Amino acid sequence: MTSLGAEPQTPSATGGMHRELRLVDAAAFSVGLIGPVGAIALLGTGAAAIIGRGVTLSFIFAVIGVALVGYAFVKLSQHIAHTGSVYALVGITLGPRAGFFAGWALLGAYTAIGCGSTIEIGLFGGQFLSDTGIAHVNEYVWIGLIGLAIVCALAFNEIRVITRTLLASELAGVILVTILSLVIFAKLFFSHGPQGQTFNWHFLALPTGADIGTIASAAVYGFLAFAGFEGAAALGEETDNPKKEIPRAIRVAIIVVGAFYLITAAAQSLGYGTSAAGVKAFADGFPFGDLGKGYIGSVYADVLILMATVSLIAISLSCASGAARIMYALSRDAGGDGRGLAVLSRHGQPARALITVLTIIAVVLVGQRVAGSSVLDATFYALTLGTISLLVAYVLATVGAIRFLFFAGPAKAPRWQVVVPTLGGAFVVYTIYKNVVHVASPYSYFGWLVLAWLVLGAALVAFVPGLAGRVRAGLATSTS
Predict the structure, then answer these.
(1) Which residue, 178, 323, 460, 479, has fewest beta-carbon neighbours within 10 Å?
(2) Residue pLDDT, tens place only, 343-400
(3) Are the beta carbons of 98 and 343 closer than 8 angstroms?
(4) pLDDT tens figures, 225-234
(5) Is the pLDDT of residue 120 over 60?
(6) Inside any domain, residue 3
(7) pLDDT above 90 (res 221)
């Protein structure tokens, strides 16, 4: 492991990033960036506050949307391998200016989601310490900083160590959460829940007055739960045979995590109950603690909350690693001189970029507490900002896929398949619209904040002399 003060080396000195990863590592990175256990531990409650008993429908909407968008990433990754992920996929398909803009959006998304996940460590870590009687920590910022310290200790290690750590932590958590879901289904089907809940199909019915717009509004939590499914694309220069393994890794991540989310969302809705009282308890609740204790026991609930905390550390680690790779790629290709943030450690990690991203996360964590934000508000503020920025990057990727696959030279896929990324883009645009227009304060300001970040990126690529040309040259080695 290299320390924060270790002397970084330029790509020329190290020969570039280490190409050492396989399918399992790439898939683990995507799954770790998604962090399904930590994501579903809280995001269902956000959806329940919007759509009530129809939480599962909002996740079905999100799974369909992600699958359609995932088509673009899978197809493009068969032709393009680059550590810049969306930056390279869009840059090569739509041009260097659009690519830099997409990379800038993805950098903002990963960094914001990393901030939100680190703050959320304070929520779940504090809950675990309190429920087990280990300690009562009133300030979430201290637990969040401890979690961030763990991230720092892992982030500068070899990428293979990081991916295997992510895989182990998420696999254990997924198994434990799935067991809880199966127990809930069994109890409700053959008997009843703690408050008399029974199995019914109302969890697939919209509440009175809800429509497709309500589903799309709640689906932002579903899209957020999938944030990072494309993370494997950022390992394009570190994976053996990337144009084969990375598309497979993205498919695996979407299928496995999608199935897990649908099972868990349904179990949580039914576990609380589909009545008005059950929906309110869900929206105001703490699913792993409430349902784990109610259906299995307090010890199991404590273990689930601990695993959610570990999963959130994994999300923070993945987001920091992903954001650093985007920052490294942007700096390397746009700078053209191998200096600045475009340097690697002896382990092949983008050291200076990592330090920058981790510092930003720490500043936001402390800043939110100084501003007086509660742990839940601070979490959702950062996660919502990150998701909107991420969806912008997804739109650009789908447009790039449509052009590259079907209209730039000979078709690289059957022409009828153009409907897939087109529908994916429509899903994402509609979701963005429902979450930036006619929403309550302070979330009504978030679209403007994301727009300000995107305008800054657009200004850089438009007005910095020679930047577009350097980006074009830097991306030239990414195609087959």
Answers:
(1) 479
(2) 666 666 788 889 999 999 999 999 999 999 999 899 989 988 998 998 899 899 999 9
(3) no
(4) 887 777 666 5
(5) yes
(6) no
(7) no
- pLDDT at residue 271, rounded to an integer: 94
Nearest residue to 234 via CA among 326, 101, 152? 326
Classify residue 426 as exposed, middle or buried by CB count within 10 Å of its CB (0-12, 13-18, 19+).
Answer: middle
Domain count, the chain: 1
- Is residue 6 domain-resident? no
pLDDT confidence of 7, banded at 50, 70, 90?
very low
- CATH number, residue 27: 1.20.1740.10
* Residue type for position 208: T
User: CB under 8 Å, gap of 24 or more: what pairs does 366-371 form?
Assistant: 366/141, 366/145, 368/119, 369/139, 369/140, 369/141
pLDDT over 60 at 338, yes or no? no
2 domain-assigned: no
- Residue 406 CA to residue 335 CA, distance in Å, equals 32
Which comes out higher in pLDDT, residue 236 or 81?
81
Dump pLDDT digits (tens) for 14-48: 345 445 555 566 666 667 667 788 888 888 888 88
Residue 73 inside a domain? The answer is: yes
Report the pLDDT value the prediction gives residue 4, as an integer from 0 to 100. Answer: 37
Range of the domain at 138: 11-478
pTM score of the predicted model? 0.82
Q: Do 425 and 87 form a contact (C-beta atoms < 8 A)?
A: no
Q: Please enumerate in sequence order all residues whose Cβ is within 8 A of that of 212, keeping only pairs 6 or more positions apart, or say none.
A: none
